[in-house]
Amino acid sequence: MSNTTGAAREPIEYHDASAEVRAVYDDIMATRKTDWVNNYWKVLAHHPPTLRRMWANAKEVMGPGALDPLAKELIYIAVSVTNGCDYCIASHGAAARAKGMTAEQYSELVAIIGLANETNRHAAALDLTIDERFR
Asked: How do residues 83-135 score in pLDDT, each as one tens digit?
């Protein structure tokens, strides 16, 4: 699929990558316990400093923490839907399914996303004063 802006870059495959990029790819595969690197990382590889930085950020934020792995993926899907990122919806949807997301959970998530977007816009348009109890 091509980017309609004409700004799309071709993914850099492992065999064509520099040693610096291969090191990041190797860490992605080791961390995710897979033999595959997705296109997001392969396109970021055109600028190795950005690839390294974004992988370090993702590894830290999406790694072990107070939220369980499925909750993190659900949040990522919700933000991706709101931002209209088809790639992230697909990739994090797949990750959420791999972490146990059911069809019922996805349906409920979509309902919450729709409700939150609608009520957020109402609250913003109405310039609501925040209740003291919420502070």
From this structure: 999 999 999 999 999 999 999 999 999 999 999 999 999 999 999 999 999 99
Q: Would you say the pTM of this structure is higher than 0.85?
A: yes
Angle between helices 69-83 and 86-98 (to 10 degrees): 160
Beta carbons of 39 and 68 less than 8 angstroms apart: no
Residues with Cβ within 8 Å of 18's Cβ and at least 6 positions away in sequence, in order, are 48
Record the tokens describing residue 133, joined without a space. Answer: 């109890």
Return the closest-CA partner of residue 80 out of 67, 96, 69, 68: 96
Amino acid residing at 51: L
- The kind and range of the H/E element at 128 are none
CB distance 41 to 57 below 8 Å: no
Tokens of 128: 């609501």
The sign of the dihedral angle between the CA atoms of 50, 67, 39, 105 is negative
Task: Please report how the helices 48-62 and 69-83 are oriented relative to each other, as an axis angle in degrees rounded to 10.
Answer: 130
DSSP state of 12: -
- Rounded CA gap, 92 and 26, in Å? 20
